[in-house]
Specification:
Elements: H1 14-20, E1 27-33, E2 39-45, E3 55-58, E4 84-89, E5 95-96, E6 104-112, H2 123-136, E7 140-152, H3 181-186, H4 188-201, E8 207-210, E9 216-220, H5 226-246, E10 250-252, E11 268-273, H6 290-302, H7 307-310, H8 316-320, E12 333-335, E13 342-344, E14 354-356, H9 365-381, H10 405-414, H11 417-422, H12 424-442, H13 447-453
Parallel strand pairs: 1-6, 12-13
Antiparallel strand pairs: 1-2, 3-4, 4-6, 5-6, 7-9, 7-10, 7-11, 8-9, 11-14, 13-14
Length: 457
């Protein structure tokens, strides 16, 4: 007889069974990523959960801004009837919650309406929709995300500036120490905890490096299927936060948490393979294919209009506006050129790929990956020719990225072609939420205004 009270527990991934050991599973979290990319869902005793069971949440959770305010949408009929949406557990995503006191399982759920239709406004379904367009052409995108984030001193007063944490030496982290192993070791206990939590969840880390900011870390993930990698980023952001808290510090995924430090990005390496697994960006002789150039062309033509999916908050644009801080402000492309928004890393032909360096770590990973792949897809099917390659550093460009969220939303609202790929219903909802957040921010009085205008104006 199995030592598990439910047979499905014994069928879970080996990483979870190793984490469980001789303990009894106590709790299951059925979760979804919301528009922000945070976990929402329900926790329940293990005996209340079954992979075949359906669970329900009110659709109104998608009508909230990042501050928790509900938004009235003009285009939604009977918005406040509080219709339930159906959660269906995707057991391929089941993994441990290693920071929980009791043995706990978390599983990401797909979202449907009551008639079984995939919910078009759910971020995971937006990415699935984009991937379906690739599948129709016999293509499979491959991505590899890079996650940059800051470790900071606990910040409990929003009016106080965010500061780097104290490291093992008792000193604050130093900036401009990219790739320093000494700087990484300063926060060794946090990183060790991240490794432990990742191992318990079966999440693989490629590399860990010190980035240019004080207390800024980068974790690179192995390349693979976009949906699986989006799930991993979703899990990793929660994991990193919990590992930091366990060690008495905060982890933040704000794009620009400190004024004089670099911002944090989520660069995405992108390639596409055919049904035989061959990289369609390379010819047999190793040269670039038309598809490679068209993917770049589509990225240049359409990414400008989906910047709110790549840089979703007013703070996101502070990363672009920081001179000399390694954040591209353009959509030019270049060979191993980190001043361009689209970088072509040095690689063998089989690994030829395009790195999108525009995306901020504050994005929802499902939506950012979906938007970036949608633009590349449109470039390939519409055979869009890219602008000439940038041979030198690019600090000024005729196609500069939007400098603020308001203008970015104007471009997003005018774009119709990408909306067909992402889904019109989702785009209408997302636009409404982002406009509401922007309006709320514009009403805020900042510390700078109180500091300099209260008695001087």
């Amino acid at each position: 007889m199995s030592r598990y009270s439910q047979s499905w527990i014994g069928e879970l991934p080996s990483a979870f069974l190793d984490y469980l050991g001789d303990r009894r599973l106590e709790e299951v979290e059925a979760i979804i990523p919301d528009l922000v990319g945070m976990s929402r869902g329900k926790a329940m005793p293990h005996h209340k959960f079954s992979p075949q069971e359906t669970f329900f949440l009110p659709i109104s959770l998608f009508y909230q801004t990042v501050s928790g305010e509900y938004v009235d949408m003009e285009d939604i009929t009977d918005q406040w009837l509080e219709k339930d949406i159906v959660l269906r557990p995707d057991m391929a995503t089941a993994t441990a919650v290693p920071w929980a006191e009791d043995a706990t399982l978390q599983v990401i759920c797909d979202l449907e309406t009551r008639d079984g239709t995939p919910l078009g406004i759910a971020p995971r379904n937006v990415l699935k929709r984009v991937l379906s367009f690739y599948a129709e052409k016999g293509w499979s995108p491959v991505v590899a995300p890079e996650l940059e984030f800051y470790l900071t001193k606990p910040n409990t007063d929003p009016n106080e500036a965010i500061e780097p944490p104290l490291g093992r030496t008792g000193r604050k982290g130093a900036s401009r120490q990219s790739y320093s192993m000494v700087a990484v070791d300063e926060y060794g206990e946090v990183i060790d905890t991240i490794y432990d939590y990742a191992e318990a969840q079966g999440l693989e880390i490629d590399t860990v490096i010190q980035e240019g900011g004080a207390g800024q870390i980068e974790i690179n993930l192995l390349h693979g299927d976009p949906l699986k990698l989006a799930d991993q980023v979703f899990y990793f952001k929660r994991t990193i936060r919990e590992a930091a808290l366990k060690n008495g510090v905060f982890a933040t995924f704000m794009a620009k948490p400190m004024r004089d430090e670099p911002g944090s990005a989520m660069h995405i390496h992108q390639s596409v393979v055919d049904r035989e697994g061959r990289n369609i960006f390379s010819n047999e002789d190793g040269s670039e294919t038309d598809a490679f150039f068209h993917f770049i062309g589509g990225s240049q033509q359409y990414l400008m209009a989906v910047v709110p999916l790549l840089a979703p908050y007013v703070n996101s644009f502070r990363r672009f506006n920081a001179e000399g801080m390694s954040a591209p402000t353009n959509l030019e492309w270049g060979q191993d050129n980190r001043t361009t928004g689209l970088r072509i890393p040095n690689s063998k032909p089989g690994a030829r790929r395009i790195e999108n360096r525009v995306i901020g770590i504050d994005c929802n990973p499902y939506l950012a990956i979906a938007a970036s792949l949608a633009c590349g897809y449109l470039g390939m099917v519409n055979r869009v020719t890219p602008r000439p390659i940038a041979e030198h550093e690019v600090y000024e460009s005729e196609t500069r990225l939007p400098e603020d969220l308001g203008y970015a939303l104007e471009l997003f609202d005018e774009e119709l072609v990408v909306r067909e790929v992402l889904g019109a219903e989702f785009c209408q909802l997302y636009s409404g939420i982002k406009h509401a957040e922007h309006d709320e921010y514009k009403r805020e009085i900042s510390p700078w205004e109180r500091q300099h205008l209260l008695l001087n104006a």
